[in-house]
């Protein structure tokens, strides 16, 4: 039984649209770093690119409806926003990229029988989509996001810990 499939996340339970946008932004920035580093990280970049767009769309739903469902299909999230009266109109390039990112969801559990192609050449389209969707956010949400404290996320303070405090990297393979 898949209990999470019907889960509803509510603002009344502490979920915050600006926090979701912070996570979206940071996953997007990590996507850029991973695509710009080494091909071994492209699958992780694909996963984070999908998650970034997913969180951005869920932030808009949370702002508008006070809740969102545990849904991972990006096209369904856009449909929910459009059905509820939000603009979120995508350009042809944006729609094509959204479709590509939906395939990226399978990078979470790669299937040898149906592998997805992932490459750094996808980054300009992903970047354009992220910025296109941010531009579609309601102005009050956008303004709150832009002016939000960058040192906190999810009720915690982001900081670099002393190197001696970090867990051992001995499990990392070379």
Outline:
By secondary structure, the protein is mainly alpha-helical. The protein has helices spanning 17-35, 42-65, 74-83, 92-104, 123-136, 139-147, and strands at 8-10, 67-69, 152-153, 156-157.
Strand content: 5-15%
Radius of gyration: 17 Å
Mean of residue pLDDT values: 88
Poorly predicted sequence stretches spanning 5 or more consecutive residues: none
Structural class: mainly alpha
Shape: globular
What strand order characterises the main sheet? 1-2
Number of individual domains: 1
CATH homologous superfamily identity: Nucleotidyltransferases  domain 2
Structure commentary:
The protein has about 170 residues and is mainly α. It has a single domain (about 5-165), classed as Nucleotidyltransferases  domain 2 (Four Helix Bundle (Hemerythrin (Met), subunit A), Up-down Bundle), CATH 1.20.120. Helix content is about 50%, strand content about 5%. The chain contains 6 helices and 4 strands; from the N terminus they run βααβααααββ. It has helices spanning about 15-35, 40-65, 75-85, 90-105, 125-135, 140-145, and strands at about 10, 65-70, 150-155, 155. Strands 1-2 form a two-stranded antiparallel ribbon. Helix 2 runs parallel beside helix 3 (about 75-85) and helix 4 crosses helix 5 (about 125-135). The longest helix has 24 residues, at about 40-65. The mean pLDDT is about 90.
């Amino acid at each position: 039984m898949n209990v999470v499939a019907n889960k509803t996340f509510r603002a009344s339970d502490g979920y915050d649209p600006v926090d979701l946008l912070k996570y979206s932004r940071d996953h997007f920035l990590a996507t850029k770093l991973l695509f710009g580093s080494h091909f071994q990280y492209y699958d992780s970049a694909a996963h984070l690119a999908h998650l970034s767009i997913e969180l951005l769309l869920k932030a808009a739903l949370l702002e508008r409806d006070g809740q969102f469902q545990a849904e991972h299909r990006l096209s369904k999230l856009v449909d929910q926003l459009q059905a509820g009266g939000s603009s979120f109109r995508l350009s042809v390039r944006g729609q094509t990229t959204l479709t590509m990112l939906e395939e990226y969801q399978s990078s979470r559990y790669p299937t040898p029988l149906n592998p997805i192609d992932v490459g750094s050449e996808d980054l300009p389209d992903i970047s354009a989509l992220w910025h296109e969707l941010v531009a579609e956010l309601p102005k009050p949400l956008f303004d709150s996001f832009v002016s939000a404290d960058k040192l906190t996320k999810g009720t915690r303070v982001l900081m670099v810990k002393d190197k001696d405090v970090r867990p051992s990297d001995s499990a990392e393979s070379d």
